[in-house]
Amino acid sequence: ADLLGDYLGELGDGKKNQVTLSDAAGTVVDSVNYSAEFPWPMGADGLGLAPSWVPMAETHQFMGRSLERISVDVSGSAVENWEASAIDGATPGKPNSVAGKPRAVVIEVSAKPTGSAEPLIQPANKVTVRARFSELGMVTGVAIEYFTDDVARTDEKTTTLMATKADMFYQAELPAAAANSIVRYRILGDRGTGKPEVISPRPTDPNPWHAYFVNPDAPGKTRAYHVFISPTEWGNMWRNVEPGFVDGCGLGEKPACTFCAVNQKWNDSVPAVFVSDGRVFDVRTRYQGGKFARLTGRPLKSWPFPKPDYGHMPTFQALGWKVSLPKYARFDGAKSIKLNKRTQMCTGIPDTVAARVFESVGIPQPKMRYARLYVNGGYYLYAMEVEDMDENFLARGFPGKAVGDLFDCNAIRWDEGPWGWGDFRVLQPFCNYTEEQRYAYTYERKTLQWKDNLEFITLIKGLHAARAVGNDAVKKYLDDNFDRDKVLRHIAVINWAGAWDDIFHNYDLYKPPGGKWMLMSTDLNQLLTGIAVDVPTNVSTLGNVDQSLYLGKEGEPFNYRNRWNFLKDSFLTVFKAEYDELLKKLAQSELAPTTVEKYVDDAAATFDMADASQSLSAGNCDAPATQATQIKNFVRGRYDVMKTRLGF
Questions:
Q1: Which residue has the higher pLDDT, 548 or 65?
Q2: Torsion (CA) 513, 519, 522, 526 in degrees, nearest 10
Q3: Dist. CA 574–CA 466, nearest whole Å
Q4: Per-residue DSSP letters for 68-130?
């Protein structure tokens, strides 16, 4: 049959989508509004991160499963008329694997405190589980099977309660459970076979149990996140990263390290349970951070809770966490949650302010907010939650536009294994890795993973070819390939804020479809503090407002470790006059002290010192007001420097 309409070769995989079948006259013959969420068959929405499916994630990547219609005689709008195909049995262009009459399915399920209007379940609450079935199909002998989850075990004993019918719902009352309990349950019934079977979740769904959480008494104003993880899997998180970015290079800075083998487990995740506002998510988690920061954090004062079965060197420390949500159960639409430990940014106010300034000049930045992270019942960390720079971020930052090519400069400042400098130099083969492999590691593709990196490699090599010809060639090359205004705005803000390590990493390059390349910063810690590093002693000092406005240009003072960046150098050389004029304009508008100081006050007001100090990893950190004053002094000092040097 001919395909008509706005069809680009694939169906949408968002929350809800519609497919309509019309005849030649345009009359609608059939239609379905399908969804990737309950009560629709969630198994048809890819493999997600279901615990039993994780080993297949690589071998089945991009393969998916079919959403199959059971009966052509039953309306396509009936959710019970659809099922997911077998994992290795997708049926596009083939007969469906299911046929006959639709059977009853659960279309609504809930677990709420008995006799209470409060949405969250407390330790004293009995819990009423309710389920409503579809109109088609029959069901008898409805029951609720449940158990209290112990993340360290897989042999928990289950209990089954018969359900009674009230109005359109079947329901049963479960006994009260202790605080921090995760209770798993599922709906059983006889659908005409003479014996009970699991009806909800569907047998094809990725997770075999529904769940609810019994909330502890955790007073505080900041949002609370709870993670529950077995001691073994928590220990595996450290085992995965302890060898270092490259096997054998471990902790610290070792430019002489000549080991070549990539630590294949560096980004491996482990199963855990994530809870927010009583909602339970089965997730994958790992420690978060780059090569230089992932393995170090604030020591925990004490930990009378289940802990890793494998020691953290030199002490048990609170590290950053990344929680990855399954495709079938996003957290408020997010694919992942990044929780920064704040060891380099103390209150996190500089990061929040710098991000807001970038946004004000038209450069999208991740959203940030504070969160209390509890692990296995203990208050582990007062963290900074940072939005991941992924497809959701790009959709927010570039509304109404398709996702383009995003590359993360995931580099280090020497050659180590496949990684190298991210200063836009031409990479050479090293350590038995080809130059193509080294570009792929050093500049990691974050979107459209099915594409290769040849266009990006050509971009870097083309810049160097233009530099070999002269400034006119460089200017033309930059204008042909980069969004000049956006790149200059990015450089202006990052240099005003006191760039210190963007010469070799901590930036992304993005090209929207049909557009040109631009820059975005990915790590804003210690900006707006006047940090300067003395190369001979490697001592960092704060408060220096007299840094160059041309950081990253060859030969400029205050360049981090006397290094520079080929891309920044090119822009600051051929567009210097335009850059200076832009700085003058911004200094009296978006970068003006009166403007930025308001951002500082807003950011300081969101930091809750009382909540932060209750964490078992709380350490020395300036009070928000103290750091706010330091930032304001820096902003005023930078304004005076620009006024003197640029003459306005």
A1: 548
A2: -160
A3: 12
A4: EES-TTS-TT-GGGEEEPPTT---TTS--S--SSPPP-EEEEEEEETT---SSB-TT--EEEE
415 pLDDT band, cuts 50/70/90, is confident
User: Per the structure block, which two tokens stand in for 332?
Assistant: 């408020």
Which residue, among 493, 487, 521, has the nearest Cα to 585 in the 3D structure? 493
Calpha distance 248→250 (Å, rounded): 6
Are 200 and 184 in contact by the 8 Å Cβ rule? The answer is: no
Q: Give bridge partners of residue 405 from the DSSP assignment.
A: 511
Please tell me whether residue 195 adopts helix, strand or coil conformation.
coil
Query: Is 370 within 8 Å of 383 (Cβ atoms)?
Result: yes
Q: Are 472 and 484 in contact (CB under 8 A)?
A: no
Report the length, in residues, of the chain.
Answer: 648
How far apart CA 95 and CA 506 sit, in angstroms, is 50
3-state secondary structure of 581: helix
The helix (run of H) or strand (run of E) holding residue 284 is: strand 279-287
Q: Dihedral sign for Cα 639, 641, 646, 648, please.
A: positive
The one-letter amino acid code at 290 reads: G
- Cβ–Cβ < 8 Å for 526, 552: no
What is the 8-class DSSP label of residue 214?
B
Peptide bond preceding 39 in cis form (omega within 30 of 0):
yes
C-alpha 339: how far from its chain's center? 9
Question: Which tokens sit at 134?
Answer: 């579809």
* Number of alpha helices (DSSP H) and beta strands (DSSP E) in the chain: 12, 28
| Nearest Cα to Cα of residue 97 among 69, 126, 60, 78 | 69
Q: Which of 144, 137, 142 is nearest to 192 (CA)?
A: 137
Nearest to 363, CA basis, from 491, 224, 209? 491
CA–CA distance, 128 with 105 (Å, rounded to integer): 20
3-state secondary structure at position 641: helix
Contact in structure between 338 and 320 (CB atoms under 8 Å): yes
The DSSP 8-state label assigned to residue 416 in this structure reads B
Question: Quick check: 617 pLDDT over 70?
Answer: yes
Task: Name, in order, each residue with C-beta under 8 angstroms of 9's C-beta and a sequence gap of 6 or more.
Answer: none
DSSP secondary structure code for residue 368 in this structure: E
First to last CA, the chain: 68
- Is the pLDDT at 49 greater than 60? The verdict is no
- Whole-number Å distance between alpha carbons of 202 and 643: 67
Q: Can you tell me whether residue 443 is helix, strand or coil? A: strand
β partners of residue 225: 373
| Mean pLDDT over the full length of the chain | 88
Which residues of 114-242 form beta strands (DSSP E)? Answer: 127-133, 140-148, 159-162, 164-166, 169-174, 182-190, 197-200, 210-213, 224-228
Say if residues 555 and 563 touch (Cβ distance below 8 Å): no
- Confirm if 216 and 252 have CB atoms less than 8 A apart: no
Taking phi first (over 0 means left), then psi (-120 to 50 degrees means alpha), and beta for anything else, what does residue 123 get? alpha
Q: What is the largest CA-CA distance in the chain?
A: 88
Band (58; pLDDT cuts 50, 70, 90): low
Q: Residue 417 contacts by C-beta under 8 Å, 6 or more apart in sequence? A: 245, 246, 259, 260, 261, 262, 431, 433, 441
What does pTM read for this prediction? Answer: 0.90
Chain centroid offset of residue 268 CA: 15
**What does DSSP assign to residue 79?**
G
Strands (DSSP E) along 191-247, which ranges? 197-200, 210-213, 224-228
Does 537 score more than 90 pLDDT?
no
Q: What angle do CA 463, 460, 513 make, to 5 degrees?
A: 105
Residue spans of alpha helices (H) in 363-402: 391-397
